[in-house]
Design brief:
single chain, alpha+beta, Phosphorylase Kinase, domain 1, Aminoglycoside 3'-phosphotransferase, Chain: A, domain 2, two-stranded antiparallel sheet, globular, binds adenosine-5'-triphosphate, binds L-homoserine
Length: about 325
């Protein structure tokens, strides 16, 4: 459950009075997710998602995210659309938080992932990269390599209270990446959080893509590395080469990878594993008082990082062209 900010009925009624979607019939906090306060909002005109943006979303970035969703929808991606109020605004304030209403997307997140799910996710990611290619607004990635030192400093040696040796693993990985992090790969708009809970499968339809709130401008192959980590390990956090082969080859068919992107995948996967290890670790060590949230376990990503540290080339992921 992730509800950091509750919404009293009369505040919600006042907020909705500015929209043309009818009165609220129900508004329920949503269990999944850890970053924002999400509610399933049903009004007289149908289902919506009400989101109150929390600590990791900068209000100034919201026009980028909402504009990107509209751009992707216009370019064939099945994703939510922001609902604009009577003044044409997609972004408001509710209970002291920036807030927006988006359309509800049908579909289910895959609970038991298989190679088919991974192939669909790989293709969906590549289609998203192609669809967003001409989105005109840049947004630096605050959670790329340049942001990891400060996250590591926030956790500091408290990391070892979560798992013995974790602070050493983090500092060693940061040192390794400092000299090898790529800086000349193809760049564009990336989703940066395309985990299974952000892809909604529905038979006969392209997968729905939600949660654009980490989208930014960065290396496209880094987004693929984030997906390899999120989709291609089993419940015991062991790499599944069949899933990896399915995901990478489906991506490559929809947006052919360049040779230097292929060669860089192992280092990108290490960096992507470190990024989510660090954000999960910081959240794990600092759950706000009273928040209804189940933080995600950082040790899942220390396992994945250890795996990638043993990978010497991309063929080890089960895929080669
Ligand atoms: N437009 C939508 N249509 C249908 N369901 C949605 C939509 N947006 C969000 N959800 C549901 O709400 C859940 C949480 O949403 P979201 O992933 O955006 O939250 P979050 O706090 O950013 O979570 P995280 O970043 O940890 O994935 C999703 O997993 C999905 O079940
Ligand atoms: N998808 C992220 C949470 C949002 O950044 C994780 O699983 O750590």
């Amino acid at each position: 459950m992730a509800v950091y900010t509750s919404v009293p009925e009369d505040d919600l009624a006042h907020f909705l009075a500015g929209y043309d979607i009818g009165q609220a019939l129900a508004c329920k906090g949503i269990a999944e997710g850890v970053e924002n306060s999400n509610f399933l909002l049903r009004t007289e005109t149908g289902p919506f998602i009400l989101t109150l943006y929390e600590k990791r979303v900068d209000r100034g970035d919201l026009p980028f995210f909402l504009g990107l969703m509209e751009h992707c929808a216009r370019n064939g991606i099945r994703c939510p659309l922001p609902v604009r109020d009577r003044t044409g605004e997609a972004l408001g304030m509710l209970c002291g938080r920036p807030a927006a209403i988006v359309t509800f997307l049908d579909g289910m997140s895959g609970s038991r992932l298989d190679a088919e799910h991974c192939a669909e996710a790989g293709e969906a990611l590549a289609r998203l990269h192609v669809a967003a290619r001409d989105f005109p607004v840049p947004r630096p990635n605050a959670l790329s390599f340049s942001g990891w030192d400060s996250l590591a400093a926030q956790a500091g040696t408290r990391a070892d209270s979560v798992e013995a040796g974790l602070s050493a693993l983090i500092s060693t990985t940061l040192d390794d990446l400092r000299g090898t992090w790529p800086d000349s790969l193809p760049r564009g708009v990336i989703h940066a959080d395309l985990f299974p809970d952000n892809v909604l499968f529905l038979s006969g339809r392209t997968p729905g893509i939600i949660d654009f709130y980490f989208a930014c401008t960065d290396m496209l192959a880094y987004d693929l590395a984030i997906c390899i980590n999120a989709w291609c390990f089993d419940a015991e956090h062991r790499y599944d080469a069949e899933r990896g082969q399915a995901l990478i080859s489906a991506y490559d068919r929809a947006r052919p990878l360049e040779a230097d992107e292929i060669a860089a995948l192992p280092v990108l996967c290490r960096g992507a594993a470190l990024r989510f290890l660090l954000t999960r670790l910081v959240d794990w060590l600092s759950v706000p008082e009273g928040a209804l949230v189940q933080p995600k376990d950082p040790r899942e990503y220390s396992r994945k990082l250890e795996f990638h540290r043993g990978v010497s080339n991309t063929a080890d992921y089960g895929w080669s062209r």
